[in-house]
Design goal:
4 strands; single chain; 1 helix
């Protein structure tokens, strides 16, 4: 994991295991009292057997839904 405190950014590269890719979390200042959290995932699930891929995709969808609910609550 790489942390860029001056850019308010965290980057994690996934190089070991069944899932490969990267995840980036970056806090973007929009105004004096408003910010946006950008969550960028670039992942490859092809290393996961077909039988388990649905579970992985469901976990990703739940995370995406959770981030969306957090954003709505913060508005």
């Amino acid at each position: 994991m790489i942390v860029y405190p001056d850019r308010m950014k965290i980057q994690r590269k996934l190089t070991e295991g069944l899932v490969a890719g990267s995840m980036i979390l970056e806090l973007e200042t929009l105004s004096a009292n408003k910010s946006r959290l950008n969550a960028i995932w670039e992942i490859d699930l092809s290393g996961i057997p077909i039988i388990g891929r649905g579970l992985a995709e469901n976990g990703i969808k739940q995370t995406k839904d959770s981030l969306h609910r957090i954003a709505q609550a913060a508005e």
